[in-house]
Each structure stands twice: as C-alpha cells, then as structure tokens.
Amino acid sequence: MSRPVRLISPTGMYHIVVRGLDGLQLFGEPKEFDYFLEQLEQVSEGFRIYAYCLLTNEIQLFFRESEEGTVPEMMRRLLTRYAGWYNRKHHRRGSVTEGRYQCALVKAGDESSLIRSIHQLSGDCFGYPYSSFSSYERGEQRYPSHWFDGDVIFFHRQSEERDFTIRPSGKLTDRQVKEQVELFCSKRNISDWKQLSKAERDAYLRELRERFSIGQLQAATGISRGIIARCTMEKVSKSQAPRQMESFLL
C-alpha cells in the first residue's frame, strides 16, 4: 500500500517529529547530538530553523522550507546521513527511526506557542544544551546565520506566551494539556485512542496520570473518568511503562 502524499503547507512552515525505532536511543552522548546538528546545518541551506529540541529518543524541528516541496528531500538526506553514521558507530544495520517521520503543517500566528512547546520538552530550558532556547532567551548564536529568523525571535520575545517555566500540570489550560498529550502519544482525537488495545491505552493513561488530573485527561482524550480512574489505580512496575515517556518532560 503506497504512502499518502505529504500535504504542502501554505505558510511553508512545518513541525517535524522523529522518534527512535522501538524506543531506540538516538542520542546517548554529546558526540551524537553534535553530529546530528552538523548534518542539519549541511542539509538545511535556505531553510529557517525556528526551533529544535533533541531528546535521547526523539527529535523535534520547526522550520520554514527554502522553497515549496523541499522538505522531503531535506529530511531524507538528514535522516539517511545520521542513520548511516549511527549504524557504523554502533555496529548495527537497518533503520534507526520509527517509521515515517511525523510532519504537521503550521499556520501563521502559531509560531510563538509552538516554539515555546518545543523548548519545554527538555524539562530544563535554561540548562539543556541541545535545543534552540539559548538563541531566543540569551541571544547566543552558535549556529549558521540562516537558521534563526530575527523577526520571529523578536515576535516571540514580545509574546505573552514567552513563559518558558515548566509549570505544574494543574496550572495548565485544557488546550495546553491536550497539546502535551498529543506530543507524547501522537493521538489527536477519540478515534485515535479507540484504535489502541486496552493494554496500550491503559499504559499511556497511567503515565499521563502522573502529570495530569483525571478531569484534564478526560477533556484531552475523550475517555471517561471511570476508565481513567480504574486503570490508573492499578499498580504497575516501571518496566511496563511505555518507553516513549522518556521524552515527555512537561
């Protein structure tokens, strides 16, 4: 069965999410983070990198493409280069990423909130070295001049959403909770949740329950309070939790 054709963003802006294959640790040491960023620099000529965050088993990028239709080739070159280098380094073969990367179109006006969400993924914006946060908050420019757009940085700094503090879940709005649940689970509506097996659904909910209230999860997932309460009361060992939770830090 052929893959669906990628949609073209009218704004030229895209949010990309790449995860390690079956929980594979994509980055385990500084050299691996640095190599990926070096390759991103080489393949992204003409692109505006608005935000990025590299976690141990997840990559998130937000950028504007150089010209229409250039995203697939750029991502192909980037992931192929990193996979080849990673496999040689670890004496393995095959894919290192989980299926096809996720690609969401970004609407004009959503830049600031998306940048903030990506930076928050690290759990420590000010201390984490592998995100674009320092370029926004401290004006550090360690990367090529074509990566960051001065107008976007200025707008982001003036925005009311420029709060990078990692806040307790109880202070998040329903919309913010829903955004974080989607980032963790890649489940955007009730039909996505219905496709999961009971075991998968309950495992996700147990992990999410550590961050959010039952009411917040009901609003974000459409799952009844009773189901959420029952499955999260069960005690499970840490080894049974979804490995993707390593990248969910908000």
Topology:
Layout: E1 13-19, H1 30-43, E2 48-55, E3 58-64, H2 71-90, E4 102-105, H3 111-120, H4 133-137, H5 150-158, H6 174-185, H7 190-194, H8 198-209, H9 214-221, H10 225-233
Antiparallel strand pairs: 1-3, 1-4, 2-3
Helix pairs in contact: 1-2, 6-9, 8-10
The tally of beta strands, per DSSP, is 4
**Shape category:** globular
Strand composition percent: 5-15%
The average pLDDT is: 77
With strands numbered from the N-terminus, the spatial order across the biggest sheet is 2-3-1-4
Radius of gyration (CA) equals 18 Å
Measured between the Cα atoms of the first and last residue, the distance is: 36 Å
Unreliable segments of 5+ consecutive residues = 164-170, 235-250
Question: Would you mind describing this structure in some detail?
Answer:
The structure is a single chain. With 250 residues, this protein is α+β, with helices and mostly antiparallel strands. The chain has ten helices and four strands, in the order E-H-E-E-H-E-H-H-H-H-H-H-H-H. The protein has a four-stranded antiparallel β-sheet with strand order 2-3-1-4, covered by helices on one side. Strand 2 and strand 3 form a beta hairpin. The longest helix is centred in the N-terminal third of the chain and has 20 residues. The chain is globular. It starts with 12 loop residues before the first strand and ends in a 17-residue tail after the last helix. The C terminus is likely disordered.
